[in-house]
TrEMBL record:
Pfam families recorded: FAD_binding_3
Gene Ontology biological process terms from the UniProt entry: ubiquinone biosynthetic process
UniProt-listed PANTHER family: UBIQUINONE BIOSYNTHESIS MONOOXYGENASE COQ6, MITOCHONDRIAL (PTHR43876)
Needed co-factor(s): FAD
Pathway(s) served: Cofactor biosynthesis; ubiquinone biosynthesis
Assigned protein family: Belongs to the UbiH/COQ6 family.
Keyword Transmembrane: yes
Gene Ontology molecular function: FAD binding; monooxygenase activity; oxidoreductase activity, acting on paired donors, with incorporation or reduction of molecular oxygen
The protein's name: Ubiquinone biosynthesis protein UbiH
């Protein structure tokens, strides 16, 4: 097993990459790189057993078609294919008033994506990492020193071990200390909203439909999950509330919380009960103006954090993974090392426009649907009705949901 115990005798082992953060994006990078023959140290402060414990995390993620292609191409599909729920349709509505949009592809076009419990994604990633010789996995520890220079990078761990590599990759999430230490400029703001996240059992089948219900206080999303082992219907809930109201909602007993949720569902899934712990987190936007520095690349939430309105946060991070692995692989074939400045510049140029476009659209939707009042609501529903009637416009939005627009890395192509 390639974990912190197995690498005690590798105090200064040189590898191609040091990846700080072994979450969904960081570990996917390690696996994708490993399949291309690129070696890595992965450092994570968490204990994998805690992250994958039953009931520890009720969150779920929408995996776009492009991201599923990535999982398939790095060999994760067999472990995951029976755990995800296809998203066959997306219903978008303004407060459940007339004028909704239904995004439903033709049967031969496949689904709009798949919903997975985050726990299932982690279990598959961690199992694959343990069997991959190109990954040295250091858990329950963290970097206390990061040095980058013209000839490589060096990281000292909490227990004194020193790891060396050509390139340092920061995948530590929104509060990335490596990004902050490098003094990357961030465009950022607080939406003054909080996401209430949990899982629901419900009486009626969701029919593989995701619901995005926009209320003035924020979007209310019901995302389809597979039925559990007892045949109970399940969905993930992401309910956005104003920060000023969040403390009161968090303090609600479960029965009161469920009553509030049910009142916003208008009976679309029937009676509901909780299937997962209730969690919440503040919603903020941040975007790094640069995602590279000397022998450093920043990926995933460390580089960009957005509102969950379109479910694209993880998918954007997986596009970072595909682009970085492709750039490094092509460069190493030409004899360049992973930390070469030319390769990093190519990675940044590739990702900058795509990231900016996705985040701008997501932020725009958040603001558009957050304007209260009858007139803005009527205007939104008029626009939604126009989209519903225009196949070409619906096709554009469905391609965006699938993650199939723009220049895709090879790993994200079928």
């Amino acid at each position: 097993m390639n974990d912190s115990v197995a690498t005690q005798d590798q105090k200064a082992e040189y590898r191609d990459l040091i990846i700080l953060g072994g979450g969904l994006v960081g570990m996917t990078l390690a696996l994708a790189a490993a399949r291309a023959g690129i070696t890595s140290h992965v450092i994570d402060r968490a204990d994998p057993a805690d992250l994958t414990a039953e009931g520890a995390d009720g969150r779920a993620s929408a995996i776009s078609t492009a991201s599923w292609n990535l999982f398939t191409n790095i060999g994760l599909a067999p472990a995951l294919k029976d755990l995800g729920c296809p998203i066959d349709s997306i219903a978008v509505t303004d407060s459940m008033k007339p004028g909704r949009i239904d995004f439903t592809p033709k049967p031969e076009e496949g689904s709009l994506g798949r919903m997975f419990a985050n726990r299932d994604l982690r279990l598959a990633l961690f199992a694959a990492a343990r069997e991959e010789k190109n990954i040295a996995w250091h858990v329950r520890t963290e970097a206390v020193r990061r040095d980058r220079g013209p000839h490589g990078v060096e990281v000292e761990l909490f227990d004194g071990r020193v790891l060396k590599a050509s390139l340092l990759v920061a995948a530590e999430g929104r509060q990335s200390p490596t990004r902050d230490e490098a003094r990357f400029a961030l465009a950022k703001w607080d939406y003054k909203h909080r996401a209430m996240v949990t899982g629901l059992f419900h009486e009626k089948s969701h029919d593989n439909t995701a619901w995005e219900i926009f209320y003035p206080a924020g979007p209310f999303a019901l995302l389809p999950l597979r039925d559990d082992d007892q045949g109970r219907h399940r969905s993930a809930l992401v309910w956005t509330v104003a920060e000023k109201d969040a403390a009161g909602i968090i303090a609600m007993p479960d029965a009161m919380f469920l009553h509030e949720v049910e009142s916003r569902m208008h009976g679309v899934l029937g009676r509901i009960t909780l299937s997962a712990p209730r969690m919440s987190y503040p919603l903020r936007f941040h975007h790094a103006g640069h995602v590279i520095d000397e022998r450093l690349a920043v990926i995933g939430d460390a580089a960009h954090g957005m509102h969950p309105i379109a479910g694209q946060g993880l998918n954007l991070g997986l596009r970072d993974v595909g682009a970085l692995v492709e750039v490094l692989t092509e460069g190493m074939r030409l004899g360049l090392e992973p930390g070469d400045a030319q390769l990093l510049a190519r990675y940044e140029k590739w990702r900058s426009l795509d990231t900016f476009m996705v985040m701008s659209v997501t932020d725009g939707l958040t603001r558009l649907f957050g304007i209260p009042g009858r007139l803005p609501s009527a205007a939104r529903r008029l626009g939604m009705g126009a989209v519903q009637r225009l196949p070409s416009l619906k096709r554009f939005f469905m391609d965006e949901a699938r993650g199939m627009s723009g220049k895709l890395p090879e790993l994200l192509q079928a």
